[in-house]
Amino acid sequence: MSIPTGPWQPPVAAPTSSAPQPGYPVVIDRRPGPVASFFFVGTWLAFMWLLEGVDALTGGALDSLGVSPRDVTELPQIFTAPFLHFGFAHLIANSVPFLVLGTLTRMAGRREFWIATLSSIVVSGLVTWLISAPMSVTAGASGLVFGWLGFLLLRGLFARNWVQILVAAAVFGFFGGMLWGVFPTMPGVSWQAHLGGVLGGALAAWWLHRRPRGAR
Fold first, then answer.
1. CA atoms of 63 and 139, how far apart (whole Å)
2. In the chain, what are the helix, strand and coil shares in percent, each to the nearest 5?
3. CATH code for position 60
4. Nearest to 128 by CA among 114, 148, 146, 110
5. Residue 166 covered by a domain
6. Half-sphere exposure of 144 (CA within 13 A, CB side)
7. Average pLDDT over residues 91-101
């Protein structure tokens, strides 16, 4: 017994080349490369140097945009404080880790970069605002730098990715000593901002690589 199949059609050959075929999904890696990431973060750093120049010319007028603890009116300044510094020596101390860790975070992907950056700024700023000493003003990029450090150190563990774990090991080898900055061991240094930054970076790494509920 025959089964009607309609008009005869010639068989379709399976694709034999690696070129994209209609109907086949194509995945393109759109993560920024090292050069683009370096110049992107370098632009941020140049902007901070410009701000510090303006601050110096105006007698420290921008320093008031730092974070004052438990002052509700200054709570929005958690978004301005990371880009301001108390003098060029303060900015110089933050410049190299800012450029290196920011570039590595940017290379992880645009979405990853913005989530890690915003989480680090917000959590660092809130912790600083909540527990810093009274009558203090906190500013500087170190909270964000510590956030990027925490993100880079932990994302490989959450993602279970050996390449990222190796990157984390290299980062720890070069910058791991910075983690002592989360303890109140140096007068005049905001360990609160550092601690909040690490927590913000860790939160971003966990959120970006969390596994769906029920997944094994």
1. 8
2. 65, 0, 35
3. 1.20.1540.10
4. 146
5. yes
6. 31
7. 96
pTM, to two decimals: 0.83
Q: What pLDDT, in 10s, does the model give residues 67-92?
A: 999 999 999 999 999 999 999 999 99
Residue 167: phi, psi to the nearest 5? -60, -40
Residue 67 tokens read as 């974070």
Return the exposure string of 81-102: e unless at least 16 CB atoms fall within 10 Å of the residue's CB, then b: bbbbbbeeebbebbbebbbbbb
Looking at the structure of the chain, the number of domains it has is 1
**Dist. CA 119–CA 135, nearest whole Å:** 26
Residue 135 pLDDT > 50 = yes
3-state secondary structure of 213: coil
- Residue 6 in any domain: the answer is no
**Does the residue 163 lie in any domain?**
yes
Among left, alpha and beta (phi > 0; psi -120 to 50; other), residue 136 is beta
At 7 the pLDDT is: 54
